[in-house]
Design brief:
Length: 169
């Protein structure tokens, strides 16, 4: 994963920042083109994930444009030395950070503010038949979520443990 800290130009009028600048992103190791933008809004305690696409893997560039989320990436590449390991960062409208997850990582987040709006770019389009989901509280992964009783979709409640689902080679 790559944590992106964009340059922010702020003054009494507000702020300006470039959320995507291809030459800078390529220089930082983010070279795949983005082909789809997504936008979600959720309330406090909502947990979305952990999702990935197996046959059409997506890199994701994630940011919170309103509110604050705890954003998580889990390595789901069996051949990787970090397979099953997770990283979590706070993304918010205040810190303006972005997290890039390369293809091969499951992604999820939970909302820690009253509400949050999340924008993310992907390097491949969504293929619902190709989506896989790892259960958010898989004890083998051990994500330490900042919520104790999250609101989870019916689909995400039926997710499997990492040891039971298809992963990348």
């Amino acid at each position: 994963m790559i944590l992106v800290e964009p340059k922010v130009f702020a003054d009494e009028r507000g702020f300006f920042m470039e959320t995507y600048h291809q030459p800078r992103f390529v220089a930082a190791g983010i070279a795949l083109p983005f082909v789809q933008d997504n936008h979600s809004k959720s309330r406090r305690g909502v947990l979305r994930g952990l999702h990935y696409q197996l046959g059409h893997p997506q890199g994701k560039l994630v940011r919170a444009v309103q509110g604050e989320i705890f954003d998580v990436a889990v390595d789901v590449r069996r051949s990787s030395p970090t397979f099953g390991k997770w990283v979590g960062v706070l993304l918010s409208d205040a810190n303006r950070r972005q997290l890039y997850l390369p293809p091969g990582f499951a992604h999820g987040f939970c909302v820690v503010s009253e509400t949050a709006e999340v924008l993310y770019k992907t390097t491949d389009v969504y293929h619902p038949e190709d989506e896989r989901t790892v259960i958010w509280n898989d004890p083998d992964i051990g994500v330490i979520w900042p919520v104790s009783d999250p609101v989870v979709s019916a689909k995400d409640q039926l997710a499997k443990r990492l040891s039971e689902t298809e992963c990348f080679a």
